[in-house]
Input
Amino acid sequence: HDRIIDAAGKTLLVCGNAMISGEHGFYLSVETKEQAHHIIAEIAYTIRKAAKPRITATLIKDFYKKESMPSNVLSQFGYHLFSAGPNMVVPIRKSWTTFDAYLGEMKPKYRRRAIKTVKKGSKIRRQTLTLEDVVQYQEDIFKLYCEVVIKAKFKMFFLSPGYFTSLKKHLKDNFECIGYFLDNSLIGFTTRIISNAVMEGYTHGLLYNYNKKYELYQNI
Output
């Protein structure tokens, strides 16, 4: 469980990983989902009862598969089911051996937009960052991340400056951080986490004053 405290002092208890989507909340050796949900509700109640400051709400996330959806047990404990935005998934076709091959399968309207976007960002240098690079640019990466987060209407948490360095140290090649440079200055970055055959787009950041001229966000 994670505990998140916002600026107003309200505390949210999260069962699951607050910083990434996916069914990573729990793993229990019980026979039915009803048993699992009952145990989770009891554990959450025990934590809330002992917690100081007082926990305002509890979030249990995520449920993608129909068979893993919360049972009536949780509703009996006062929980309410709600849906967030869907994951946007792109299966990689075998024919996409190059970027041009990928563009070639787009509809003409979208292909023209993509080509125009790439052209506007032609002066930007794209570089996959090593662990040493992530350490070197740690402060810049954090500032770029904050540029995006402060624009969000809803903020569940703020990452710490050393978060991306820690991810790279522990996940190694399964975590990629790609920097976007203009005249040797880091103006944007994006990250991705690789798990078996799935690559999940993760956190990104950019300087918005470069966005319109270079289509920075679209190039990222």
